[in-house]
Amino acid sequence: MQTAPDPEPRSPRLIPIAKEARRFSRGRHSHPWAHLIYAMRGVVSVGTEAGTWVAPPNRAIWVPAGVKHATRSHGPVRFRSFLVEPGTKVDLPATCCVMEMSGLARALIVRLDTTFSPPRPADFTERAARLLLDELGVLPTEPLNLRMPHNPQLARLCASLRTEPGRVIAIEKIARRLGMSRSTFMRHFRQETGMTFGRWCQQARLLKSLTLLAKGESILNVALDCGYQSPSAFAAVFRRTFGKAPSSYFA
Q1: Over residues 9-37, mean pLDDT
Q2: Quick one: pLDDT at residue 114?
Q3: How far is CA 163 from CA 34, 157, 201, 205, in A?
Q4: Which residues pair with 77 in a beta bridge?
Q5: May I ask the CATH class of domain 148-249?
Q6: What's the CA angle centered on 84, arms 81 and 87, to 5 degrees?
Q7: What is the rounded distance in angstroms from the CA atom of residue 105 to the CA atom of residue 110?
Q8: Where are the alpha helices (DSSP H) in the chain?
Q9: Domain limits of the chain?
Q10: Calpha distance 142→242 (Å, rounded)
């Protein structure tokens, strides 16, 4: 019995969006198109009910179709984004993620940016769009996100710690306040966030530091605002996590 041939993959259609502003913010919304947000300068963050994803320069945030999200910049920003038409075959996660962009991906984004380039032939645009989506599918993701718990008590705690990442509270004190033992609190927190409480707090401080550095804050002020004892202590954790010193990261 002869089987029908597989249908030809649908030609990808991308809608480019360019933005350059001193400050950018769009409230919670969703759409049937997937969304790629590429930060060229400055820092962009995406917030959903599940957490926050942060993209420094040369990183991009992938937002799957239908995910309700809010987008904002932290200081002056220049970014390019693409809406990916529903039905397009994409080998990317079904959840938000942050990717470090390769040289090929950056070059393709420039080619596809019809806002600043002359219109291209349709077949060229389709081939470039497919190559970009294929390249995104093999790029490694980066740990530039912060998962929020669903438990209302833990969610309120995490929201306050995100506002004041430099605040230090003993785990025993938090557990008593929530009516839990220390071990119960630690178990619930890890189940809800995928991290230990200490690791979550460190991630919150590091992501906050990226937004402050993007606004031009000094390393000293960033270190103190984020709860580190000294700039050197902050720089050591920053380098261990991101592979570069804070002074050179945005370069």
Answers
A1: 85
A2: 59
A3: 29, 10, 11, 10
A4: 21
A5: mainly alpha
A6: 170
A7: 9
A8: 103-112, 122-136, 152-163, 171-177, 182-193, 197-214, 219-225, 231-242, 246-249
A9: 14-142, 148-249
A10: 9
Judged against a pLDDT cut of 70, whether residue 91 lies above it is answered with yes
pLDDT tens profile 151-168 = 999 999 999 998 888 888
CA atoms within 13 A on the CB side of 184: 8
What does the pLDDT average to over 181-188?
A: 94
pLDDT at 3: 54
Average pLDDT over residues 114-138: 77
Residue type, 207: L
Q: What is the pTM of this model?
A: 0.81
Give the pLDDT confidence score for residue 116 in this predicted structure: 46
CATH tag for 14-142 (out of 1.10.760.10, 3.40.50.800, 3.30.565.10, 2.60.120.280): 2.60.120.280
Say what angle helices 152-163 and 182-193 make with each other, to 10 degrees.
80
